[in-house]
Design brief:
about 325 residues; alpha/beta; 2 domains; 7-stranded mixed β-sheet; 11 helices; transmembrane helix; transferase activity; Bifunctional glycosyltransferase family 2/GtrA family protein; transferase; membrane
Length: about 325
């Protein structure tokens, strides 16, 4: 088993973690210096003296890039037992790291997540950030998990090539990995670990605005695409209902035009489905989903607008809010 520690501008807690791991395990320890610079050379040299392999980036490239460097090294080395990734700031306990390693051996072809329970005193930004990403992940995949932002994760050796191909170079990489795992055939298993925050997590290099934007970018693109499609659908519905006074015809025509727009944008910019055979594969799936959503759209609108008597505008808004979440999950999982 290899313990992989990506590290950027570490302090003595990195060395303390290495020494504590050496006391309880004979696992290989691989440290990736993500362009920390000359001021941190002594710490990484001390890590080498402790028996660690240290790889270095000349400039800072991001946590995702550091993890990929480590995965590629382990893959080329021919590791058969697996890899456990831990952060360098002392917030992962050696006992928990070893529990993840054992879970990797027990759950082959599973991504093992060290799942914090967020009990006790937890910094607000950490609690809020995990709550939001947990909601986004559950919406995107239909599979809720407790801790989407944990840095303590374990992988079997047959995942290494795939791990090097997952998009993302910074903090978004770990979220992208979770989003793409089901399609790649990898299940998730969570192992409870201690929740440890030192000095209100001040050592974290996570940038709340910039890195959050990277994490949520796929979902934000979908929101933008769906927003324009919904605006087109909404405008056409109101206009057609005024012209024809026929709700069914208005719903079908508005949904048809907005669906063509939405498919084109999502294929090219949101889910990057590509050309050729990818279009032939995704097109029938997408419009099958359109039919399902169309039926749901009409059924819900009929109940809210014609049966209950809610005005058309608020009835339409309520319907679209529900169908938005349903559509994202289905497109992510089945269409593209």
């Amino acid at each position: 088993m290899t313990i992989l520690i990506p590290s950027y501008e570490p302090d003595q807690r990195l060395l303390a973690l290495i020494r504590n791991l050496k006391e309880v395990s004979d696992a290989s320890i691989l440290v990736v210096d993500d362009g920390s610079g000359e001021n941190y050379r002594d710490i990484f040299e001390s890590a080498r003296q402790e028996g660690c392999t240290v790889l270095s980036h000349r400039v800072n490239q991001g946590k995702g890039s550091a993890l990929k460097t480590g995965f590629d090294y382990v893959r080329r080395k021919g590791e058969k037992d697996g890899v456990v990734c831990a952060d360098s700031d002392g917030q992962h306990l050696p006992g928990d790291i070893l529990r993840i390693a054992e879970a990797v051996r027990e759950h082959r072809s599973h991504i093992v997540l060290g799942s914090r329970q967020f009990t006790g005193k937890v910094p607000l930004r950490s609690r809020f950030g995990n709550s939001v990403t947990r909601m986004v992940y559950a919406t995107a995949t239909g599979r809720p998990i407790q801790d989407t932002q944990t840095g303590l994760r374990g992988y079997s050796s047959d995942m290494l090539e795939w791990l090097c191909e997952v998009p993302g170079e910074r903090f978004e990489y770990e979220m992208n990995m979770l989003l793409e795992a089901p399609e790649a055939g990898y299940e998730l298993v969570e192992v409870p670990i201690e929740t440890v925050y030192l000095e209100e997590n001040k050592s974290s290099h996570f940038r709340p605005l910039a890195d959050s934007a990277r994490i949520y970018f796929p979902f934000l693109k979908f929101c933008t695409s769906s927003g324009f499609a919904a605006l087109l659908d909404f405008s056409l519905l109101i206009a057609l209902q005024w012209l024809t006074s026929n709700l069914l015809v208005s719903v079908i025509a508005a949904r048809l035009f907005s669906s063509v727009f939405n498919f084109t944008v999502n294929r090219r910019f949101v889910f990057s489905a590509g050309e050729g055979s990818a279009i032939r594969k995704s097109l029938p799936r997408y419009f099958s989903l359109v039919v399902v959503i169309l039926l749901l759209n009409y059924a819900i609108l009929h109940v809210l607008y014609e049966s209950i008597g809610i005005p058309l505008v608020p009835a339409k808004l309520a319907t679209e809010a529900f169908l938005f979440l349903f559509s994202y999950g289905m497109q992510r999982k089945f269409v593209y």
